[in-house]
From TrEMBL:
This is D-isomer specific 2-hydroxyacid dehydrogenase NAD-binding domain-containing protein. It comes from the Eukaryota. It comes from Apiospora phragmitis. The keyword Lipid metabolism does not apply. Residues 108-286 form the D-isomer specific 2-hydroxyacid dehydrogenase NAD-binding domain. Keywords: Oxidoreductase. The keyword Transmembrane helix does not apply. PANTHER family: 2-HYDROXYACID DEHYDROGENASE-RELATED (PTHR10996), D-ISOMER SPECIFIC 2-HYDROXYACID DEHYDROGENASE NAD-BINDING DOMAIN-CONTAINING PROTEIN-RELATED (PTHR10996:SF281).
Amino acid sequence: MSKPIVLHIGEPIKYNHEFYTNEFCERFHVVLNDCPDRNTFMQALKDRKYGDFSAIYRPHFQTGGEMGQWDEELIALLPASALGGRGIWYANGTGASDEAVSDTDLYMILSVFRNFTHSQLAARTCDPAQFEEAHRLIATISANPRGHVLGLVGLGRISKRLAHKARAALGMAIHYHDVVRSPPEVEWELGAVFHPTLPGLLAVVDCVSLHTPLTAATRDLMDESAFAAMMPGARLVNTSRGPLVNEDALVAALRSGRLAAAALDVHYHEPHLAAMENVTLTTHVGGGALDTRINFELNAMKNILAVVGERS
């Protein structure tokens, strides 16, 4: 019996060589894509260059995108009868970055409460006067997170892990809002208080952290009205999707004092926030740890083994 074919797109694996050789390649006939762009890749699909492959393996989201958007034009060429409607299974690498992103959230919570970005900027000037000024000021405008309320917009894997960490390490109370309420046992485990509406959550939290996908309904979720619903001096953390936050409204809230600080790993536009001392900015590296890449690569293989292995 011939092995099912798997089309490998993108770079070769870098980390899980033993699993790739002993488990993955033993179970499947792995064919490497050598087409450098969309047109040649589409032609290869039309010519059945890769055979009747049962799965496509992409080891990481930063590689294997040379064919561009997986739209109807491209999906129609796959050796199957767009996803779901054509009987094609799609599995992503969710879970691989949970630890790294929740750690980033934890860092950002500390930063917005303790004004660490302001302190770092002053220290990097190498100007003794600015150093001393920040040293004196920051102790008068900062607070410990302990005893404060952390609000989570969306209670998924990452925010659940963050809830555990923020409660255990920082002593924060956990409140959340989601379109679907979590079971009582999950709320009990996290010590989490549910709010059926976003304004209801925003009205009681000292810091809100966003953990929701970007959709037409959530774009500009944090707008002028959302910031107006927050307590004066509250804080915002976003490691989810940049367009969840209307940055013009964010700047206005920061300048008015409605928000004390914000931290963004993901951005709508970003440059006009760069000069603000009370805004922590990172370059979309929330999940950017070696562990994440190792897990993405491994989980993608395990997903294919679980699905194709069961059907063949």
